[in-house]
TrEMBL record:
PANTHER family: TWITCHING MOTILITY PROTEIN PILT (PTHR30486), TYPE II_IV SECRETION SYSTEM ATPASE (PTHR30486:SF15)
This protein's name: CpaF family protein
Xref: InterPro entries: AAA+_ATPase, P-loop_NTPase, T2SS/T4SS_dom, T4SS_GSP_E_ATPase
Molecular-function GO term, any one: ATP hydrolysis activity
Sequence similarity: Belongs to the GSP E family.
Domain AAA+ ATPase: 223-349
């Protein structure tokens, strides 16, 4: 969107061309003006005993308009209606919101926001990272915004605890790391979460899977097969987990366990649990293993673990193998077999002492399906493999790949979906007959 000729922009540049909103808001003159008005508004709100938060939105808006009028008259700046609205919104976001991040969070085309210090902000659109003009006044300004993110959910960030995982009110995932660990200033990463979970039809339409794969996965979820989703960072594991959870019946009692709550289940009987980090004294921590143990006492029909990354793997498999069929989890791994190796390693971290064959029998009897998702070189996310865990032969877990994505070349994001086996081992447990696409390939 192009911004019209602006009084402040004219002061900042003699270029008569109308600057874009990003370029305009990044100018030193604009930033200085915004924060002068911001300081005046805060003082006025304090004098009027008005709280500087969204609960006093109308009074804050009125005060901002008055401050802009007074400043424009005093400094001789002519502002048209659109310009005044932009400036007022920016000041309002500084007072009640997340400052320069607000326009980026509201942009539906942006998937990720990455802040590398006060002056460098990147966004990801359609799988591509690009530098934007948004910026913070300084590191202190950025730290103020960070504290607004972490404080409402009971997280803390300071020199003694220099990194934290958090979430926004809409479920977006946040990671923060600050000096002295981050050498170039505070670093902030936001993985935006869609207000409405992506649907299976959208997965097919975007080429993330084909109709046969969607039909099989929905059938598997409805039939209560235990499912493990694996993939690398940013591959779309949680998004896929969220979509597949939509095929669970509304009559079931579901318990979700996450480090930062971002799953949005649509069922009515959902209990959401979230881990808690230790206090500055190192006490009061509640980890995922504690929550899984407690969830087993809460009469769940299914347990959905946002990510298994530690000793909670023991309790997760216990839930999957002792009457909580249809449970689901995600794990970081590059292939389906790597996912099993990682679970095996995590069982050791959990203190499960047994010989290798016993561990692998425990794993193979608990997990029925592994779904691998991958982010391709062009930024697209695809389901690249659906594999059954059949059992144990000797000391080796036997797998049966049902579907796969075959790329045109190792570096290509294009390719076709292929049916690898038409005789699933767990076919007898499926509620519906399996259907296959009449022709292979992406939509």
């Amino acid at each position: 969107m192009m911004r019209p000729s602006f009084g402040l922009a004219a002061v900042a540049s003699v270029d008569s061309a109308a600057p874009s909103l990003d370029t305009f808001s990044a100018s030193d003159t604009y930033q200085a003006t915004k924060f002068k008005i911001f300081d005046v508004v805060l003082e006025l709100l304090e004098n009027q005993n008005i709280s500087a938060d969204a609960s006093s939105a109308r009074q804050i808006r009125t005060t901002i308009d008055e401050a802009i009028n007074a400043y424009g008259i005093r400094e001789g700046l002519a502002l048209n209606t659109l310009e005044r609205v932009w400036l007022a919104d920016d000041v309002y976001h500084e007072i009640t919101g997340l400052g320069p991040l607000e326009p980026l969070l509201r942009d539906p085309l942006i998937d990720d926001i990455i802040v590398n210090g006060a002056r460098r902000v990147y966004v990801e659109r359609g799988g591509t990272l690009s530098l934007v003009q948004a910026r913070f006044r300084d590191d202190a300004h950025l730290m103020t915004i960070i504290q607004r993110i972490v404080s409402p959910i009971g997280r803390r960030i300071d020199e003694s605890s220099p990194y934290v995982d958090a979430r926004l009110a809409d479920g977006s995932r946040v990671n923060v790391i600050i000096p002295p660990i981050a050498l170039d200033g505070p670093m902030l990463s936001i993985r935006k979460f869609r207000p409405e979970p992506i649907t299976g039809d959208e997965y097919v339409r975007t080429g993330a899977m084909d109709h046969s794969m969607l039909d099989f996965l929905s059938n598997a979820v409805e039939s209560r097969l235990n499912l493990l989703i694996c993939g690398g960072t940013g591959s779309g594991k949680t998004t896929l987990l969220n979509m597949l959870s939509g095929f669970i019946g509304d009559s079931e009692r579901l318990i979700t366990i996450e480090d930062a709550a971002e799953l949005r289940l649509r069922q009515t009987h959902v209990v959401r649990l979230e881990t808690r980090p230790p206090t500055i004294e190192g006490t009061r921590e509640v980890n995922a293993r504690d929550l899984v143990r407690n969830a087993l006492r809460m009469r769940p029909d299914r347990i959905i673990l946002g990510e298994v990354r530690g000793a909670e793997a023991v309790e997760m498999l216990q839930a999957m193998s002792t009457g909580h069929d249809g449970s689901m989890a995600t794990v970081h791994a590059n292939t389906d077999r790597d996912a099993l190796f990682r679970i095996e390693m995590l069982l050791g971290f959990g203190g499960l002492q047994a010989d290798l064959r016993t561990l692998r029998r425990y794993i193979s009897s608990s997990i029925q399906l592994i779904v691998h998702v991958q982010r391709t070189t062009d930024g697209r996310r695809r389901v690249t493999s659906i594999t059954e865990v059949i059992g144990l032969e000797g000391d080796t877990i036997t797998l049966n790949q049902l579907y796969r994505f075959a790329p045109d070349s190792p570096l290509s994001g294009d390719g076709v979906f292929e049916v690898m086996s038409r005789r699933p081992f767990f076919a007898h447990r499926l509620k519906r007959p399996i259907t296959y696409a009449t022709r292979p390939g992406t939509p």
